[in-house]
Amino acid sequence: MELNCYLLDDQSRLEIRPAPSRRDWMDAAAQRAPYRCIPLVIANGFGWELLSPAGFTAIWNGGPGVDGVVVLEDPDTVAPARSHFGSGILTFHVPALFRTDPGTDLVVQGPINQPKDAIAPLTGIVESDWGPFGFTMNWKFTRAKTAIRFRKGEPFCHIFPVRRGALEAIEPKMQPISTSPGLAAEYAEWHASRQQFNADLKQPGSLAREQKWQKHYLRGVTPQGERAPDSHRVKSGLKPFVAVTPVDSASGE
User: Scanning 37, 141, 165, 184, which has its CA 20 to 30 A from the CA of 78?
Assistant: First the structure.
C-alpha cells in the first residue's frame, strides 16, 4: 500500500513524522505507569502526524460568527490556522494533497491520546483515492475566552489509511459468553487472577508488589500459557515519508 503526499507548490513546507509512542503526560505519570498499557502505546503511534510550522495563539469569544475566533501570530511568522467556518472552529490549512491506493480512505483526526484543554479536534474520513481535493484539519473550542497555544512543531493532525468499506463488511454479533464455554473458562480464570493480583497489590512485600502489574498481554501469552499469534506487537514502527525526486519530462529522465 502506498500513501503519497503531494506538496502544493515548491514553497510548501510540511513536516510529517510517524506518530511517536511517547507522550509528555505519560512520561510525567508516577512510575510512567501508562506505558504498561500496550494498546495505548500502539494507538499513540498508529499513523503519521502533521506538525505546525509556526507557533500561535487562538481565542474564541463564544460567538457563532467567523469573527468569533481570533488568531494571534507569533512575531515574523504566518500562522497555519484561521477562523473559516464560524461556530468556534479553528481551521488548519494543509498545504498538500494526499493520494491513497484505489478503494482506500484517509482518516484525518487530532493527535491520538494527546488531550488539549478547552479545544477538541474533529475527525473526518476522506476519499483520498480519486479527486483533486485537499482537506483542512479542524478543532472546535469547548470553552470561550481561553487562550489556546499551539507551539511550533506541535502535531495538529494525525492521519492513517483504511480500506473503504472494511467496517461495513463486518457482521457484528452479540451473545452470552456462555455460548463459548472455552472462552468463558479462560475469562473466568483471568478475572479471578486479576482480582487476586489487585488484592495482593495492597499487601506489603507481596509478589504482586514486586511485579507491579500483570504482564500477560505485554508478553503475548494467555494466563493458561498459550502464545499469541506471531503478529502480536508491543510497539509500532511506521516508515517516514521520503522525498521523491521529480522526473524531468523535458530530458526524458
Answer: 141
H-only helix segments in the chain: 24-28, 38-44, 181-200, 207-211, 216-219
| CA dihedral of residues 137, 143, 147, 151 (deg, nearest 10) | -30
Question: For 244, which DSSP code?
Answer: -
Give the pLDDT confidence of 63-121 residue by residue, as tens digits: 999 999 999 999 999 999 999 999 999 999 999 999 999 999 999 999 999 999 999 99
Q: Which three cell numbers stand for residue 133?
A: 481535493
- The 10s digit of each residue's pLDDT in 230-242 is 777 777 889 999 9
Grid look-up 509556526 returns 54
pLDDT in the model for residue 253: 43
DSSP 3-state of 7: strand
- Indicate where the chain has its CATH 2.70.40.10 domain(s): 3-163
| 50: its cell numbers | 502533521
Cell representation of residue 174: 452479540
All three cell numbers of 40: 495505548
Sequence-distant (≥ 6) Cβ neighbours of residue 216 within 8 angstroms: 190, 222, 223
Grid cell, residue 11, equals: 514553497
Backbone angles phi, psi at 118, to 5 degrees: 75, 5
